Amino acid sequence: MKPIIIGIFAAFFFAFTFILNRAMDLAGGSWIWSASLRYFFMVPFLFIIVMARKNLKPLFVEMKNAPGTWLLWSFVGFGLFYAPLCFSAAYAPGWLIAATWQITIISGSLLAPLFYETIMTENGPKKIKGRIPLKGLAMSMIILLGIILMQVQQASQLTVMALTLGILPVVAASFAYPLGNRKMMDVCGGRLDVFQRVLGMTLASLPFWVLLSIYGYFTVGLPSIGQTVQSSLVAISSGVIATILFFQATDLVRGNMQKLAVVEATQSMEVLFALIGELLLLNSAFPTTLSWLGVALVMGGMVLHSYISNKNVAPIRDKATAS
Q1: What are residue 131's phi and psi, to 5 degrees?
Q2: 207 close to 54: Cβ distance less than 8 angstroms
Q3: At what angle do helices 94-101 and 269-281 cross, to 10 degrees?
């Protein structure tokens, strides 16, 4: 239950991403700076946290041992995740992006065969290829049905351009984020804590953000003070607090693909939090009865997802993930 609660708290802080990114776009800010500034601002906060815990040296040793791996999966997990989300904010409202992002519930489950689990047998630990949690996936479909109902009326009013450029990049990001996160969990093998891993991935993704910033400077110029301030808020709320909470939740169930799917399913709560945030901060339209029905399905799907997962997880399963 603890990983689920932590995951819900992570969803609350992640929701600020969709609200503030949309607000920055409406104010004329470029998605390029919304994306890159977040990670630039994350570095000092995370650096101070890890340094205060006296854990910098082990992190740098791990990164030195596999620099290419860190660069690759940090680019996938952070670069190919956040840049498309910010790009989509220029074409679709935050609620639609937040709703579309929930496809990561299914994306994470479909990635299971790319990883290995360690189970305890009579002959000792045994590595097996992860399997798609079909029952959990069915519960995810209920959550997605609720999300569709929440957004169907508003989505019908969007143009084809908004639907295409506002949705497809988010679908790509929904696979990149869990893939990069899980790969780095395998690479670290439990040797680094969540603070070290987030800092390491942030540092390893910086070359991408520097290149994107250079492109932004020559195409759209420097960001405004307002966008800089809002990007710093996103960095703190989503980049530091939410990411650390989410990674901590996934670390608690590392190696158990079914429970991992449940933790990733908690991110469906982002839609509810983003909806409330847009009502309060961006004066969005109040949800219809159909939308509230969708809310009920999301909540019900979350409860069923958790129940099915905990009911079917065998007690002999070890939490260690094979690399």
Answers
A1: -115, 150
A2: no
A3: 170
**How much is the average pLDDT of 255-270?**
73
**Quick check: 9 and 265 in contact, CB under 8 A?**
no
User: For residue 225, with 0-12 CB atoms within 10 Å meaning exposed, 13-18 middle and 19 or more buried, which class applies?
Assistant: exposed
Task: Report the range of poorest mean pLDDT among 73-82, 142-151, 154-163.
Answer: 154-163
Alpha-carbon distance 248 to 147, whole Å? 26
- pTM of this structure: 0.77
pLDDT of amino acid 315: 42
Residue 225: both structure tokens together:
């003070």
CA 259 to chain centre: 16
Task: Judge whether 26 and 219 are in contact, CB under 8 Å.
Answer: no
| 132 CB-side CA count, 13 A | 12
Give the number of other CB atoms < 10 A from CB of residue 221.
10
Residue 49, number of CB atoms within 10 A of its CB: 16
CA distance 246 to 181: 10
According to DSSP, residue 127 is labeled E
Contact (Cβ atoms closer than 8 angstroms) between residue 185 and residue 75: no
35 closest CA partner among 97, 81, 101? 81
Torsion of CA 216, 221, 227, 232, to 10 degrees: 50
Distance (Å, whole) CA 115 – CA 323: 8
Contacts of 19 (CB under 8 A, 6+ apart): 94, 274, 277, 278, 281, 282
Q: Report residue 166's pLDDT band, with 50, 70 and 90 as the boundaries.
A: confident
User: Which CA distances in Å does 311 have to 166, 252, 258?
Assistant: 37, 18, 11
